Each structure stands twice: as C-alpha cells, then as structure tokens.
Amino acid sequence: MSETTPFPAATIAGYPRIGANRELKRTLEHYWSGKIDRSEFDKEVSDQIAKRINHLKELDLDSPASQPADFFLYDQVLTLTCALGAVPQRFGNLVRPDGSLDVDGEFTLARGIDDKAALEMTKWFDTNYHYLVPEIGPYVPISAVANPWLEQVKVAGEAARPVLVGPVTYLLGAKPTPDSPAHYNPLQRLDDVLAAFEAFLSQFAKAGVAWVQLDEPGLVRDTWSAPRAEVLAAAKKAYDFLGKLPNRPALFVNAPYGDLGIDGRKVLADTSIEAIGLDLVSGAVPSSEDLAPLSEKTVVAGVVSGRNIWRTDLDGALQTLRKIQEVCPKISVSTSTSLQHVPHDATIETSIDPVVRSWLAFADQKIEEVQVLAKGLSNPSSVNAELTENARILATRANHPEVKRAEVRAATAAVTAADRNRAPYAERVAAQEALLNLPLLPTTTIGSFPQTTEIRKARAAFRKGEINEAQYDEEIKAEIARVVKLQEDLGLDVLVHGEAERNDMVQFFAEQLDGFATTENGWVQSYGSRCTRPSILWGDVSRPRPMTVEWSTYAQSLTSKPMKGMLTGPVTIMAWSFVRDDEPKKEVADQLGLALRAEIADLEAAGIKVIQVDEPAIRELLPLREAGREEYLDWSVGSFRLATGGAKTETQIHTHLCYSEFNVVVDAIDHLDADVTSIEASRSKMDILPAVHEHGFERGLGPGIWDIHSPRVPKLDEEKDLLEKAVGALNPRQVWVNPDCGLKTRAYPETVATLKNLVEAAKEVRQEI
Ligand code: GLN
Ligand code: ZN
C-alpha cells in the first residue's frame, strides 16, 4: 500500500465515550431496566455517536484520520471479542448463524444471565478501567463476523480513524478456557486473529478509511503469562503479516501506558507499518540514537498525558517534540493514552477554586493542548501567547502556599521504620482470637450495602440545601440501623455499617482531607455503565478532624458483634484520584498514611476492634515493567504499614483487594501484613488458591464466593463449592467467608438472597471440617 494520506499533525489516542453528561450510562441503564426499547436504544446510541463526532470536529479534529473512532457500547475489548465471534461455548445459544451477536448478546457476555457467569473483568493495564477478559481456548471460533467501527466511519467520514485493540494485546489479555491443554497460551491463536484483522482491514480500505489505529499496550508490560521474547516475536509476526497486506489502510500501532523499550521499538520499526505511537509521559523520551530506527516512520508522540488532569508544560513538551523531530521528521502530536481516563471538560467545574481550576486540563482542554503543540512545532512564533499564558499558570501552581506545607513535611520526615511495624503475627492472632471470639470460617462483607434511592435522594437534597445536616445525619443513621439489623438477622459474624454516608470510597475521604479538590461532573468510565469521579489531590495532605468515627461508633452501639471500621488505604486514595505530578509518590503516600494512622487511633479509642483498610488499587499502580516494581512496593506497602502500624496488637486489621491476580502481587499482599485479606475469587473460580498455597501465605484470607459485579444470585451449592475449594486448599482456620467486593452496586433482593446462602454455606462447610 502507498501512504497517500499523511498522518494528521495533531490527534488524540482516544476520547471518552460515556458522554459529558453520562449519556451512555443513562441509555444503557434505561435499556437494561426496560425503560426504553431496542429501537429507542439504537436511536439514542446513534445520536450519541453523531454528537460525539460533531463535538470532536468542533474541537478541530476534522482533518483526515484525526478522529479516533472508538465509541464502544460497553468495552473496547468486548467489542473486539464480539467482532471476532469469539464467544465462549456457554453463550453459544446467543450466536446468530453468521457467528455474530446482537447487542443483547453482547450485554449478556458482559453481565451474565441465569446460571451463565459473565466474562471475567480485569483492570486495563495500570488504570482503573476494567475490561472483559476474552476466553480464548484452542477451539473458540475466531473470524471477522462483524465490523462495528464502520457505523462511526460512515458518520465521521474521512476524519475517522478506527481504533482496535491490537491482535497481540488482545490475546495477551485473554485467558485460556478450562478445556485448554496444559501449556496452551491464547497467543497460539494469533494466526486466526490475524486472518480476521486482514478482513477488518480490507473492509476499512473499502470504506475509504485512510488510517487504522491498533492499540498494543501489551508491548509495554512484562507479563507473567508469556516471556517478553515471546510477546515481541508475536508482535513481529503480527505486524510483518499485517504490514505486507496489499489491501489495507495505513497502520498506526500505538503503545500507550508505558515504555515500548528499545527492543519493542525495534520490532515495530522493522515491519512495514506506517506509524508508531510512543507514550512519552509514562515512558522515557528515547535518545536520538534510540530513535534512529524509527526515522522512516511517522512517530506519534504522546506528550500530553491521557492519565492525569494537569495542564501540560507546553514549553517542555515542545522541546521534547523538537528533539524527536530532528531524527524523525514525520512527527505528529498526540496524547500518551486514550483520554477515556479523564473527564470531559474542566471549564464546567465551577465549584473548584478558580486558581486550582486554572491548573486543570480535562479531555477537551487536552485536545486544545495537542493542537497548540502541533502549531508550535510547525511555526514556533505562532503560539507565543499560548506559551506565555501556560507558563504563568504553571507558576501559580508551583508557588501556591498550600502546595507545600512545612508542618506536613516535618511529620513525614519524622517517620521511622518502627512506625511501619506491628507486633509479630502470632502474637496478634492470639490476642485477636481472645478478644473477638469468632467461629471457624467467620462470615463478613466487604463494607458497603446497596445504596438505596432514598439515600441518594437524601444526599442530593442535602447538597441542594433542601434538608439540613441534622436531618441528613438522621437518614444515614436510620439506614445504618437497618443494615446492622439485617446483618444480625442474617447471622453474619463481623458486621459493617454499610457506608451509606459515602458517595464514593475515595471522594468521601478526599472531601474531608486538606489538599484535595472534588469535581461535580468529572466522571470517568470504570466499566460498562459504571463511572467514578476521581478527586484531585493537588496539595499537601492533612486530616483536620476524624472522618469516620461518628458513624462507626454509632453502628457499634447497635450490636454486640464486632463492627468493622472502614477506611480507604493510601495507595487506593492515590490510584483513584488524580494525583499531583510535582512531588514523589512516596511523599504523597506517607502524608495519606499519617492521616489514616490518626484515624485508626481515634477508631480504637472509640472502641472499634476490627478495622478494614481497603487497598483494591495496589495492583493497579504496579509498574508494568519489572524494573521499578521494587521501588513501587517499597513506598506503596510502606504507606499502608504507616497507616496501620500504630494499631494495637489486639486490633484486627483487614484489607481488601478487588481482583484475582493474587500471584502477581502476593509479595505485596504478604508485606502489607494485614491480619485478614479479602480478595476477588468467584469469577475466577478460586484459581488464586495454588498461588496462596505456594507462597505459604498464613494470615487470614477471604477469597470471595459471590461475584457482586453481576445481578445474578448464585445458588447455595455454587457458593458452597467455592468455599469448599478454599477450605480444601488452605488451612481452614485462615479462611474467611465473604463476597468478592462491596455491595453498593447491587440491589437488596439479590443481596439478601445471596448473603443468606453465604451464611448457610459457611454453616454447612463448618460441619464438614
Ligand atoms: N469497602 C468498600 C466497599 O465495600 C470496598 C470497595 C472496593 O473494594 N472497591 O464498597
Ligand atoms: Zn473490591
């Protein structure tokens, strides 16, 4: 193929699809609940696609191939799974004769139905976005059965650049089906996926598409399922093959989320793809020598962060771009990753202090930055005004008095190694058993109970000033009392207060700590229709007053069973906020650790005996390459231990993690030194157990036996089966019985039904021990 249309001078690697007002979320949820029918759904989706395309055109993404065609109904990986017809056997009845699924089928894969469990969900690289894990065994059908990108191409015209998860990353992110032979790896299906991509590419060529973007972040990570040499060999094979196809658009292979490395760049440089995208925010800027192999390619330089919300240092970015341009004259300006990880528009956040707000760039501001940079690259003097204004804004940030506060710095500087250590576990477990007197296989939940409409309404009314604080507190207390009573009726052993007072497990703390700003509309997609609203950590952190003590002590006053205090850990607060980029993470983590440590002391003083510090995000921030992991674990685990290290020997410290890749972080989990760890295990059918066993992990462990991501109620036997597996593989004395995660996204009917089964399963399995 000949490269007729040059790559656009300015572009973005991807754009949020949830909508500035979460339109997609509403449409999906209305459709799932039956409020709108299929034809209304289709119309709303088409409208959103059209609006999005127009909006991007208004932001000047209208030159050929400058607009990512990446509107996905639920998830970019799921869309590809469906386009490939790679449907697991249990969903075979949903497949149409041509191998494709309709949208209902697609949603069923994502959400499960009756006795058919949904596809597993896992975090996408080091982000807080979840994708649906393809199940790729040796016999799963794979071919090009649908092309959902073409609809967007039709609307956007020549501006469209379809974005697909690349073949290598797709397979690396897949898991084998249970019928796969030993040593089978989904990568073995590469030829089939490539054949399907050949078909997609020729369909795109026929539709007049000039450029296609294939996202290959799989090339920036070290994975445990395939050694790097194997990953790079697969990339070489894939792009040799796709590059040589005669009938295709130009190929832009993007490598977001990290450093492609000399080896990765070389592999891609040696193929006939036309453009390579580098993440120059997470990854290092290659030296001129290292860039030389790319000199013939278009280099799509990701200098504007797709991960954080800070204004880019435009002058610094321009210098980077010029340096690359000297070696690679075909250079284009882009974002480091898709903007799906940032909210739409910072200018509408009128409740944030205008000074702080001036430091922010959300998706739409980042598009402007990319364009200023592209302009500056081709004509330096044309952007003088923009550069001056940018420098002024960055200076107000650097000089703001609350960005760095002496008393906070003095406190973190005074931390000693002893502050991060508790008594030995044997001593703790004895003291805790004596104090808590729990049965074998104690039952508990992860913290939140369903957030009812009444609670949401009360919160909204309070925010609007329709009810006062005392009235709001009464509503919350009534809800806490209901939740405590329900747990007593169900017969759970360690109770929770239900977190009704929390809109979000990070924002709740961010609103009470100094150093944070919270947004009103800064939503980002977490999975499917679920969104989170990350807080913005911009200054030094401290805790002006207790944050959870009132609610926890009220809940404890209602029951003689132990009530778990419930905190979010320092690493998770950081991972799920937009964190300052002007200080080392270790400093920020320790500031948070000290704030939580003070909270734990206050909870203990108020009579709370069990305290859970959630760290579901510790896995997310794990560096994608081996190098750097040790340093990361040092500060992340260190901050958790700083938070919990002051707890009394008899205080039982729990932690909770949301995912099932125990093997990946087993060292980290072990070093957290929590007395009890709860972890996701039901979708993955307890496949963490061998790793736990192998590692000799001895402290309490609650592998989840209920997948709370789906409304489906598992049968008693399913829960029992999972629990028996855990008890069989571990020391029964270490096993806790709990769901995979908090229940706030669930409704009460399925919650009550499933918890009843959970308590019953524990009872029955206790008999068997
Ligand atoms: N305690 C939190 C809850 O139950 C934990 C949520 C999470 O791990 N994501 O909602
Ligand atoms: Zn969780």
UniProtKB/TrEMBL annotation:
Function noted in UniProt: Catalyzes the transfer of a methyl group from 5-methyltetrahydrofolate to homocysteine resulting in methionine formation.
Cobalamin-independent methionine synthase MetE C-terminal/archaeal domain location: 441-763
Native source organism of the sequence: Mobiluncus porci
Cross-referenced PANTHER family: 5-METHYLTETRAHYDROPTEROYLTRIGLUTAMATE--HOMOCYSTEINE METHYLTRANSFERASE
Free-text comment on the cofactor: Binds 2 Zn(2+) ions per subunit.
Gene that encodes it: metE
Sites where the protein binds Zn(2+) 1: H656, E680, C741
Top-rank EC class of the record's enzyme: transferase
Annotated binding of 5-methyltetrahydropteroyltri-L-glutamate, by residue: K25, N128, R530, C531, W576
GO molecular function: 5-methyltetrahydropteroyltriglutamate-homocysteine S-methyltransferase activity; zinc ion binding
Gene3D superfamilies linked to this entry: 3.20.20.210
Binding locations of Zn(2+) 2: C658
Similarity annotation: Belongs to the vitamin-B12 independent methionine synthase family.
Pfam families, alphabetized: Meth_synt_1, Meth_synt_2
InterPro entries: Cbl-indep_Met_Synth_N (IPR013215), Cobalamin-indep_Met_synthase (IPR006276), Met_Synth_C/arc (IPR002629), UROD/MetE-like_sf (IPR038071)
GO biological process: methionine biosynthetic process; methylation
Protein name according to UniProt: 5-methyltetrahydropteroyltriglutamate--homocysteine S-methyltransferase
SUPFAM superfamilies documented for this protein: UROD/MetE-like
EC number: 2.1.1.14
Record NCBIfam families: met_syn_B12ind, PRK05222.1
Lineage: superkingdom: Bacteria
Residues reported to bind L-homocysteine: I446, G447, S448, D614
Protein residues bound to L-methionine: I446, G447, S448, E499, D614
Pathway this chain belongs to: Amino-acid biosynthesis; L-methionine biosynthesis via de novo pathway; L-methionine from L-homocysteine (MetE route): step 1/1
Cobalamin-independent methionine synthase MetE N-terminal domain boundaries: 10-327
Cofactor(s) needed: Zn(2+)
Enzyme active site: H709 (proton donor)
This protein's UniProt keywords: Amino-acid biosynthesis, Metal-binding, Methionine biosynthesis, Methyltransferase, Repeat, Transferase, Zinc
